[in-house]
Write a structure and sequence with these properties.
By secondary structure, the chain is α+β, with helices and mostly antiparallel strands. The protein has 4 helices and 10 strands, in the order H-E-E-E-E-E-E-E-E-E-E-H-H-H. Helices cover 18% and strands 25% of the residues. The chain is globular, with a radius of gyration of 20 Å.
Length: 220
């Protein structure tokens, strides 16, 4: 009986691991057919005979992103929406550009772990664990690498006087992003100001002011 329960526990563990990641390919590749009306977890495969080199190609990552915004940062995504050949492969990347004192604000990737390498400049980075909310931070210089575990709040900040550039790899074809401030104060329709005032121990007027701000999107 004990062996039976052990088998069921191992089976449940294996199953949970399998469903917690991107769908695995059962063929060489599964180029996303973004024109299909069929709704699946990911994208429907294009007929392999119709695949072409451009389905696995992206150009332009050498070009700096526009950092002329309130945050002073820009994220250029390269995921399945840019390279349809990434469908089912469980990987993507992004270029991050920072003006001096630019910030990629606290956010999470619900479907992917991130590994980041600094190409130019210097970044102060960090992530926060689930309860008891321990903060892990590091100052990164050119050539340094840092990992942000899946689903944890993290950020990158350029507190140098020159531009900074980084490349991030993510363990999902479509890792998603939830920017904390945007989600909390910029949700549509808005979260009740009473709920937010109580949660953050603020007065209602402060919450109303925060909700009235322009909450810009950032993609990584």
């Amino acid at each position: 009986m004990a062996a039976h329960f052990l088998f069921l526990a191992l089976l449940a563990l294996a199953s949970s691991h399998a469903i917690a990641s991107d769908p695995s390919q059962l063929q060489d590749f599964c180029v996303a057919d973004r024109k299909s009306d069929v709704f699946v977890n990911g994208f429907v495969c294009k007929d392999p005979k119709m695949a072409k080199p451009e389905d696995f190609f992206f150009s332009g990552l050498d070009k700096p992103g526009d950092t002329g915004n309130k945050l002073g940062s820009n994220v250029t995504q390269v995921n399945v929406n840019q390279i349809p050949g990434l469908n089912t492969l469980g990987i993507s990347l992004a270029r991050l550009d920072f003006a001096p004192y630019g910030l990629n604000p606290p956010h999470i990737h619900p479907r992917g772990t991130e590994i980041l390498i600094v190409l130019e400049g210097m970044l102060y980075v960090g992530f926060v664990t689930s309860n008891p909310n321990q903060l892990f931070t590091k100052v990164l210089n050119k050539g340094d690498v840092f990992v942000f575990p899946q689903g944890l709040i993290h950020f990158q900040f350029n507190y140098g006087k020159t531009n900074a550039v980084a490349i991030a790899g993510l363990s999902s074809q479509n890792p998603g992003v939830i920017t904390i401030a945007n989600a909390v104060f910029g949700a549509k329709p808005p979260i009740s100001d009473y709920v937010l005032a109580k949660a953050f121990q603020l007065d209602k007027k402060t919450v109303d002011w925060l909700q009235a701000q322009f909450w810009m999107d950032n993609n990584n």
